């Protein structure tokens, strides 16, 4: 996949899906799929392209760093797996924020990007002070003979609330992993390199891999999870594991860490890149009266995780 931050260096002409796309969840895929269909059916060669903004507009206006469901490298991997060929990261600055809806379409989409087809979600907003919506975009684009697909909002089966990145964030913050995964359409994952930790797990008989994650990656609720672990494609299938996310209060820890114990594994994991997919929240983090009590609970966590993961294989 090609990833660029320029409006002049893109492969052209293009069909674009336009939005923030944090999470590449089931709702986002309803916006992306028409692009793939259109590029397949078009008589001219069009590049299937996702156009998003960096930083996230909310981060730009608030001035505070925003944690992401899918940092750019992960977002690119998921888009590429869907068939998207190009990711354009529009720099969101004062100049872009000040453009009217008409100016954004004419100057950015038409003149610079040479857009031939556009897909957006029903709730899409753009232009200065978010004065433009999906219908506005459709009306302006029609003046140039450009078709705009407006994707309807996606809901979970049997529910009225739409799928959104904010609702996925809320589910992860509450430890509702199954709900978050259903909205995403895939298990939420954490990918990082294994670094040296305090090695307490080894002394307890449960060695753990300490993951160094991208600082912008959104972390779920602190606590213990049953997970599946991919050892950088070095095993034929994911392994079972238990992950602890938190400050380790039993040993007076103060800094949150992400530690993974891989069941039935005895190899060296240092410097390997691990991808951990979250399957179920087991319990909140807690402080135990002794290391023996902590060791007993870890053993119970591992047995419960094994039962759960074997059932859903």
List keywords for this structure.
10 helices; 6-stranded antiparallel beta barrel; alpha/beta; 6-stranded parallel β-sheet; elongated; 14 strands; 313 residues
Written description of the protein model:
This protein is α/β, with parallel strands linked by helices and 313 residues long. 32% of the residues lie in helices and 26% in strands. The chain has ten helices and 14 strands. The strands form three sheets. The chain has a six-stranded parallel β-sheet with strand order 1-4-3-2-5-8, sandwiched between helices. A six-stranded antiparallel beta barrel has the order 9-10-13-12-11-14. A two-stranded antiparallel sheet has the order 6-7. The mean pLDDT is 92.
**Number of β-strand runs:** 14
Cα(first) to Cα(last) distance is 31 Å
Oligomer: single chain
Total DSSP helices: 10
- Gyration radius (Cα, Å) is 22 Å
Strand content: 25-35%
Q: Brief overview, please?
A:
The chain is of the alpha/beta class and 313 residues long.
Write the layout of secondary structure elements.
Layout: E1 2-4, E2 14-18, H1 26-41, E3 47-54, H2 57-62, H3 72-82, E4 86-91, H4 94-97, H5 101-112, E5 115-121, E6 125-126, E7 132-133, H6 134-142, E8 147-151, H7 165-173, H8 177-184, E9 189-195, H9 200-204, E10 209-212, E11 223-230, E12 239-246, E13 257-262, E14 273-283, H10 291-311
Parallel strand pairs: 1-4, 2-3, 2-5, 3-4, 5-8
Antiparallel strand pairs: 6-7, 9-10, 9-14, 10-13, 11-12, 11-14, 12-13
Helix pairs in contact: 5-6, 7-8
């Amino acid at each position: 996949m090609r990833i660029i931050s320029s409006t002049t260096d893109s492969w052209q002409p293009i069909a674009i899906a336009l939005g923030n796309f944090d999470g590449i969840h089931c709702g986002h895929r309803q916006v992306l799929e028409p692009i793939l269909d259109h590029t397949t059916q078009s008589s001219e060669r069009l590049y299937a392209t996702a156009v998003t903004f960096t930083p996230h507009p909310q981060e730009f206006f608030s001035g505070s760093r925003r944690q992401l469901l899918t940092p750019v490298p992960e977002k690119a991997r998921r888009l590429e797996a869907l068939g998207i060929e190009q990711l354009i990261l529009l720099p969101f600055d004062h100049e872009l924020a000040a453009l009217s809806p008409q100016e954004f379409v004419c100057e950015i989409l038409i003149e610079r990007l040479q857009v031939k087809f556009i897909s957006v979600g029903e709730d899409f907003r753009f232009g200065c002070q978010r004065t433009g919506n999906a219908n506005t975009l459709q009306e302006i684009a029609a003046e140039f003979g450009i078709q705009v697909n407006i994707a309807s909002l996606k809901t979970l089966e049997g529910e009225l609330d739409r799928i959104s990145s904010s609702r996925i964030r809320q589910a992860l913050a509450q430890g509702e992993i199954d709900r978050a995964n259903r909205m995403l359409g895939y298990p939420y994952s954490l990918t990082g390199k294994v670094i040296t930790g305090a090695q307490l797990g080894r002394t307890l008989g449960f060695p753990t891999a300490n993951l160094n994650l991208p600082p912008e990656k959104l972390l779920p609720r602190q606590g213990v999870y049953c997970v599946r672990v991919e050892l950088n494609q070095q095993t034929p299938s994911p392994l079972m594991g238990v992950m602890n996310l938190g400050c380790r209060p039993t040993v007076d820890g103060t800094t949150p860490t992400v530690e993974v114990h891989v069941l039935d594994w005895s190899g060296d994991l240092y410097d390997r890149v691990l991808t951990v997919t979250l399957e179920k929240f087991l319990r909140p983090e807690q402080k135990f009266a002794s290391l023996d009590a902590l060791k007993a609970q870890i053993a119970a966590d591992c047995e419960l995780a094994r039962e759960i993961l074997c059932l859903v294989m």
